[in-house]
Design goal:
Strands 1, 2, 5, 6 and 7 form a five-stranded antiparallel β-sheet that branches. A two-stranded antiparallel ribbon has the order 3-4. It is elongated and about 85 Å long. Helix 4 runs antiparallel to helix 6. It is built from seven helices and seven strands. By secondary structure, it is α+β, with helices and mostly antiparallel strands. Helix content is about 45%, strand content about 15%. It starts with 7 loop residues before the first strand and ends with a helix.
Length: about 220
């Protein structure tokens, strides 16, 4: 997002237009550039989408709320505005009427009816962007830590179950998974099914890339 010019103005959003818009579908054969754009626009609001569709650069300071559904444990992500009712638009060519014509825009912020829109300093917008970026990075770090802790705890639990059903006498240099593979043909049908179920769960945990995917592994 361009912050080299100072023509930033505030718009008043119509009620309900700062809620998240429907996700944009991502084609299976999407290019790297398309994937990056899809990721950038993840969680965008109705207001932002309408402005961007008109080629208007918009910045809505925001934060993410991530919770788990109390029954399904499904991860629910919601993006919320820091400034309820407002967003900033970058207008190097001062196209105010073009912004006002966007359906989700109620008006542009001005001190009086007869005064022009209020211009906001570049350093203020840049600070908003930096604060949002730092908060997002801190959240991602915490999310990664939570994910790895959950993965580690589940793996330890499953390995403990695996040790209980596998034959004793494993070589200290042999991993538990290798021991399972070597012993699988000598196990009874019931124990073999149990071992295969546990190793499948361990594989799923290893492949999981999100906390939601890890939570789905029993």
């Amino acid at each position: 997002m361009n912050t080299t010019k100072t023509n930033w103005y505030a718009v008043r959003a119509k009620p309900g237009t700062q809620r998240m818009a429907r996700p944009i579908p991502l084609a299976a054969n999407a290019t790297y550039k398309q994937e990056a754009e899809w990721e950038r626009r993840k969680g965008e609001s109705i207001l932002e989408r309408q402005l961007r569709q008109e080629g208007i650069d918009v910045f809505m300071p925001s934060y993410w709320i991530r919770t788990k559904h109390h029954r399904t444990n499904k991860l629910i992500e919601r993006r919320q505005p820091f400034l309820v009712g407002y967003a900033f638009v970058h207008l190097p060519r001062l196209e105010f009427e073009r912004v006002r014509a966007v359906d989700a825009v109620m008006c542009m912020l001005a001190p009086t009816r007869t005064a022009g829109p209020v211009r906001f300093p570049e350093n203020m917008i840049a600070q908003f962007m930096m604060d949002e970026f730092e908060a997002d990075q801190a959240h991602k770090l915490q999310e990664w830590s939570d994910m790895e802790r959950q993965r580690f705890n589940k793996q330890n639990h499953l390995r403990g179950q695996l040790k209980k059903v596998l034959p004793k006498g494993r070589n200290p240099k042999t991993s538990l998974r290798e021991h399972a593979d070597m012993a699988i043909d000598r196990l009874s049908e019931v124990v073999r099914a149990r071992v295969l179920a546990i190793t499948a769960q361990l594989d799923a945990l290893e492949a999981a890339e999100t906390l939601a995917e890890i939570d789905q592994v029993a």
